[in-house]
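Researcher: Go.
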Amino acid sequence: QVQLVESGGGLVQPGGSLRLSCAISVRFLSIYAMAWYRQAPGKQRELVAGISSGSGTSTDYADSVKGRFTISRDNAKNTVYLQMNSLKPEDAAVYYCNFYTNPPRDVWGQGTQVTVSS
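Model: Structure:
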């Protein structure tokens, strides 16, 4: 059974930064494209960023986070990251990682809460 463990969330002021991590319990993470999703209260879960398999040379971002968020991966550590800069109140949500498939696999972790408030 695949396990996804997100961490790194917290409370940050507008304009601040956070780095999220996701540890994935699979063999050969490199063969999988991965992604970050988020869900704010009362809203549907949405795709935030995706990264291709292998070394992750190809990335995709939601328009709302382009230029502010960066997804990356370290296959040796079985970890995917999301660097979030210039955070806005509308970025507040629970953030999840998952495989970059459409639809996402039904293997969600507990997520990590991001709160953006002054």
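Model: The chain is about 0% helix and 45% strand.
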